[in-house]
Design goal:
4-stranded antiparallel sheet, about 250 residues, Immunoglobulin-like, 7-stranded antiparallel sheet, 13 strands
């Protein structure tokens, strides 16, 4: 039997390339540790109010590193108790407890500031907080922090959180353009930095006792973008208040 050497070499080449393609399809990467930083970059006079000198404090951010659907909230549905507590009062405990009981959440927690002007947990203008997570392909990240110069608004990532990998490439850089501000729909609203200084009425957090909760006139409407629900309000650009960055470790 005569063997066609040229044909045999071509066949071996094709088989080798196919094997390489299969290997590429099955590539797995090691978990990556990400450092996430949330900064309050608001400045005095940003909001037309004397409260907090017109800056916009942020509550202790609560984060969730997860798989599947957003475990913190769903736009277009009623806010859960965890989101309500963050959006109205900046209190993280209810959300932290809720995330701890969710099997799709790989890690979560609340991150407080270095101290602030009142030595409290809020993230004031000029301050930042950081946390780290170790994630795999398919994992996502979400967070919530109160827009404090409001009745019940919160900053978060749009579209159910951010994917931490693009294929095998870890997410990196400034994520602020993925941040949005939602109205939780749990308390009647006035424009940022406005409204009465005592009950009854939609009382905003800066004029409440810091430890008070569920103060103000309640409502019950689905979570929706604050700018869409209140187009007549003057709302500062997100990138004038908050900056979110993520850095994968080498």
């Amino acid at each position: 039997m005569t063997i066609n050497i040229r044909f045999l070499l071509m066949l071996l080449t094709v088989l080798t390339l196919a094997a390489c393609d299969d290997d590429d399809d099955n590539v797995t990467i090691d978990p990556v540790t990400f450092d996430v930083t949330i900064e309050n970059i608001s400045t005095p006079g940003l909001i037309d109010t004397e409260r907090a000198m017109g800056t916009n404090p942020l509550s202790p951010p609560v984060y969730a590193h997860f798989i599947g659907e957003d475990p913190m909230f769903t736009a277009g549905e009623l806010a859960n108790a965890g989101t309500e507590s963050i959006a109205e009062d900046g209190f993280p405990d209810a959300m932290v407890a809720m995330l701890a009981g969710n099997s799709d959440v790989k890690s979560s927690g609340a991150v407080t500031s270095p101290g602030g002007p009142d030595d409290g947990p809020a993230v004031f203008a000029g301050e930042s907080i950081s946390f780290s997570i170790t994630a795999e392909e398919g994992d996502k990240l979400q967070f919530e922090t109160m827009f404090v110069q409001s009745n019940d608004w919160f900053y978060t990532f749009s579209n159910g959180g951010v994917e931490l990998f693009d294929g095998t490439t870890p997410l990196s850089g400034d994520l602020t353009d993925r941040v949005v501000v939602y109205d939780a729909g749990t308390e009647e609203d006035t424009a940022p930095g406005t409204g009465p200084t005592m009950e009854p009425g939609p009382v905003q957090k800066p004029v409440q006792d810091p430890e008070a909760s569920n103060v103000g006139t309640a409502e019950s409407v689905p979570v929706q973008l604050a700018r869409e629900r209140h187009p007549s309000f003057t709302i500062p650009d997100n990138n004038a208040v908050i900056r979110v960055t993520i850095t994968p470790r080498s």
